[in-house]
Amino acid sequence: MSIREEIERREREILSPYATLSAESEGRDVWEEPCDIRPVFQRDRDRILHSKAFRRLKNKTQVFLTPKGDHYRTRLSHTLEVSQNARTIAKALRLNEDLVEAIALGHDLGHTPFGHAGEIVLNDMCAEGFRHNEQSVRVVERLEKDGSGLNLTKEVRDGIRNHQTSLMPKTLEGKIVRLSDKIAYVNHDIDDAIRAQVLTEEDIPMELKKTLGFTTRQRLNTLIHNIIMNSQGRDDILMSDEIREAMLDLRKFLFQHVYKNPVAKGEEVKAKAMIGQLFLYYKEHLEFLPEKYLRMMDEGESEERVICDYIAGMTDQYAITKFSEYFLPQAWQVDGY
Fold first, then answer.
1. Which of these CATH numbers, 1.10.287.110, 3.30.70.20, 1.10.3210.10, 1.10.357.10, describes 42-259?
2. How far are the Cα atoms of 211, 254, 332 from residue 336, in angstroms, in the given order?
């Protein structure tokens, strides 16, 4: 018996009857010889972790554009917080931690530079539309490894695609990530807003603090415990009505006081204009796209979709660099007088 088979045997013995077992995965689109050490979801987790798209998350905006400080969240630190919350819940419920972690680490791979500001622009300008969750799936299926993709299992891709509020994953592990995403950003966005001095702890409605907690630590504890307590022994991932409504009200509060706050979003108009100009520029100058994107058009992909692929993959700084290169006067390079 290989190490992988031994791990799969332990999963059958230890995990909940509602867990997604590695040995029972629906598999990959392209068959591969199983690894002798790692089950399929662990292998998927490793592929995501080593991908270029994952590394770029460290230089992509979460909420605060180009913040002056080292402690604001980026898309990468958000992803890691989602993963940690999700693994805590999965372990307590005896669900598949490898699957949870793979989904969590991959759920935002398709996010644009400058957070949702970039997503809004690409969705407006691309006739086919643009959604970061669908783009995350496209990254792992089509864009990574120069067009061959990561060939992830169907369960991981389902969890990545359906992590947004309006959607629902097929697995309990995917449902955990879906809620953990909201738990993470509701809490860390408050923390960042307080750091940016656009919000104070006292601004949060007292009723919400009484229900969820008076600090970030207390609120995280309340939300995670509530999911675990309400999901034990059930074929679903649930929150109590009171806590779910309080979390949604806290999210509404953030939209009013942080996400739409002119201090927090003061640079968003510039970021949107920059992404829009880059999109239009590449439509007129396809020859400036990298070779692999030109090859994708030769293979039948639409111009707009490929342009979205390229721009969405940019970090904040790379987008600024390309914009400067195309639209700002460059210094003359001359020797002597």
1. 1.10.3210.10
2. 70, 56, 12
What are the domain boundaries of the chain? 42-259, 268-325
Q: What SS3 state is found at 242?
A: helix
- Tens place of pLDDT for every residue, the chain, 337 residues? 999 999 999 999 999 999 999 999 999 999 999 999 999 999 999 999 999 999 999 999 887 776 666 778 899 999 999 999 999 999 999 999 999 999 999 999 999 999 999 999 999 999 999 999 999 999 999 999 999 999 999 999 999 999 998 999 999 999 999 999 999 999 999 988 888 888 999 999 999 999 999 999 999 999 999 999 999 999 999 999 999 999 999 999 999 988 887 766 678 889 999 999 999 999 999 999 999 999 999 999 999 999 999 999 999 999 999 999 999 887 755 555 5
Contact 27, 153 (CB under 8 A): yes
**Measured between alpha carbons, how far is 41 from 23 in angstroms, rounded to an integer?**
10
Gyration radius from the chain CA atoms:
22
Q: Residue 197 burial (CB < 10 Å; 0-12/13-18/19+)?
A: exposed
Q: Report the amino acid identity of residue 260.
A: K
Name the residue type at position 139: V
Helix spans in 168-315 (H): 172-195, 206-212, 216-231, 241-254, 268-284, 291-298, 303-312
